[in-house]
Structures are given as C-alpha cells and as structure tokens.
C-alpha cells in the first residue's frame, strides 16, 4: 500500500464518527477504490451508501467507523484485508433503504439467501 493510501486510511480512522451515516466521504471512497481496484470494474465508491459486512457467514453488519477500525491493523502492517464487494440491483437498493453495494471482509460464504436477509435487515434497521 502506498504511503498516501495509508495516510488516507489513518486520517479516516482518526476522524471516524460512530454516529455517521454509511455515505462514504472522499477518503473512504478512495481507499475502497484502491483496495478493490482489480474487482470493482467501473464502480466508483465516491458518494455511495455502503453496508459493511463481516463474519464467516456474512452475518455481522458493521457501522462504517467500526469497519475501518477493524481493517486498520492490516493496513498499518502493509497488508490488504480480505475484501470483496457485492453490487446491488436497483430493486435491491430500493429494498435495502438505498444501499448501493456491500463490502464484505473475512466472509467465507455469502449466498443469495444471506444477501436477501441482509437487505431485509437493513431495510428494517435504517428506515
């Protein structure tokens, strides 16, 4: 990871607000764009609403601040966390309460059924 990317991440963690919403700021979007550069295609995280999911079965939904705190130790050691993304369809975005995508870390299995449960859970949690 470049020094500038590490600086961006450290700045984000220092400025995290546990009560902030899931809309990404510029530094967060740049970090996710960097970490997922090989798999995101043309998707740009700038200004997007993202749900952060962890746990081997994808059952833990984290706040944005908690997610970046969780991955910070990996970044500080110069490693990339295990991370991938799932884009939501327009219908899934509507059902979820406006989320554009999920960012998953350390998730072993994430089925369509689990995705639907998360979408429905977000709808209840954030509407």
List keywords for this structure.
single chain, 127 residues, alpha+beta, four-stranded mixed sheet, 5 helices, globular
**Binned strand content:** 5-15%
The mean pLDDT is 85
Sheet/helix structural class: alpha+beta
Number of strands: 4
Strand order of the largest sheet: 2-1-4-3
Q: Rg to the nearest angstrom?
A: 14 Å
Stretches with pLDDT under 50, minimum 5 residues: 12-20
Q: Number of helix segments?
A: 5
Main sheet, how many strands, which sense, barrel? 4 strands, mixed
Identify the overall geometry.
Answer: globular
How many domains make up the coordinates?
1
Region (Disordered): 1-22
Domain DUF8192: 21-118
Biased composition (Polar residues): 1-15
Protein name: DUF8192 domain-containing protein
């Amino acid at each position: 990871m470049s020094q500038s990317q590490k600086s961006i991440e450290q700045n984000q963690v220092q400025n995290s607000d546990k009560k902030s919403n899931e809309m990404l700021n510029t530094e967060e979007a740049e970090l996710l764009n960097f970490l997922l550069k090989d798999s995101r295609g043309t998707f740009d995280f700038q200004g997007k609403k993202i749900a952060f999911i962890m746990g081997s079965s994808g059952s833990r939904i984290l706040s944005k601040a908690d997610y970046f705190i969780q991955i910070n130790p990996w970044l500080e050691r110069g490693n990339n966390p295990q991370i991938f993304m799932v884009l939501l369809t327009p219908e899934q975005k509507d059902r979820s309460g406006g989320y554009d995508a999920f960012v998953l870390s350390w998730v072993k299995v994430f089925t369509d059924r689990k995705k639907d449960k998360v979408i429905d859970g977000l709808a209840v949690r954030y509407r």
